[in-house]
Amino acid sequence: MSEARPTLPELPERPRLGGIVLASLALPGLGHWRLGQRRRAVLLFLAVQVPFFLGFVLAGNTQLEFARPIGLGGAAWVWFLAPEVGNFVATQLAGHLLTSADLGGRFPEYLPWRETGWFLSGAAGVLAAFVAAHAAGEALRRAWRRPERALGPGDAAFLTLLLPGLGHWASGRRLKAVLFAAAIGSLFLLGMALGDFADFQRHRHPWYWAGQMFLGAPGWLVGWLARHRTFTEVLAYQDAGLLFTTSAGFFNVVAALDAWQRVEDDWVREVGPAAAAAPSPTVSPVPEATP
Amino acid sequence: MTSPWVMALLLLYYGATFGVVLSAYREDEPRALLRGAVRRTLVFVVSVVAVAGAAYLVSATVLRPGA
After folding, report:
1. Which of A18, A120, B11, B60 is deepest in the core (most CB within 10 A)?
2. Interface confidence (ipTM) of the complex
3. How far apart are the C-alpha atoms of B33 and A220, rounded to whole Å?
4. How confident is the model over A134-193, as pLDDT tens digits?
5. Inter-chain contact B21–A254, Cβ cutoff 8 Å?
6. DSSP-assigned states of every residue in A204-234
7. Residue A197: CB partners within 8 Å, gap ≥ 6?
8. pTM of the shown model
9. Is A244 on the interface with B (CB under 8 A)?
């Protein structure tokens, strides 16, 4: 049976994480800004927006060929584009202001950097989602008065985006780290092999591609290196390959959620008694960390 | 052409990774994690095989054209 989550009634009030997460999803960095981490907020904002709009430039805005306008009476109110929509306001700006070079698929243009652009904007959307998780972790850090040098829940989740299991490794859970890395990494590579390394392509499988992007940096690298591979025949197990690679991306989200939760549980155990003696956590922000 | 043996191996492999990830999410203690991974792998594989078998039986009988 799984270990019961500690319940300590003397813990400080849990901050309003929903508002922090929503602010960060709307505009990456806004959550950190609200927490007083101004320099980090600007850096994260740029880390998301630069690859996002650079990706649109390189791909001739053809990301919009995969976007879905949502609205009433023929008017597009909200543009849904996975996974870019993790960077919500920028995605809406792109949807309303930009025009695809392919003009709705009617006049496809040759764009040599098209796939690279898709990877950049898609990775920026995934990065934005993890920035929101990091902001939530920083809100807890502030509420529970944890020092900046301590690994936070958001840090652990963010590390998982760099390498599956890395967040668990950093929190001292070596076996889980190895198991997550081996399971997710091998599933992804086997899936790629089953699809002859041609099954990580947005123009062919845009919904699978969105899921595959959540594997994080290793997946982006492998996918980008294989971006020009094409199916030369119908492969016997290419459907299994798509299932495996996309599942690997979703499993990495599970790993990130677990990394976040386990570090928070560590804090509950370590901080609980000490926090009971401290004054209200909502009155004094923690000083900004050096990025 | 797919081979049923290869498909079975792929199912077993997918089930194993599924079991490991799910157990790692549910458990934090190494021994419980490893035990849970084996159990969840078997449950997943048996469930898939059972549903696939039932689907095959139904398609070969009541859903068969002309049946």
Report:
1. A120
2. 0.91
3. 29
4. 999 999 888 887 887 789 999 999 999 999 999 999 999 999 999 999 999 999 999 999
5. yes
6. T-HHHHHHHGGG-HHHHHHHHHTTT---SS-
7. A222, A226, A229
8. 0.88
9. yes
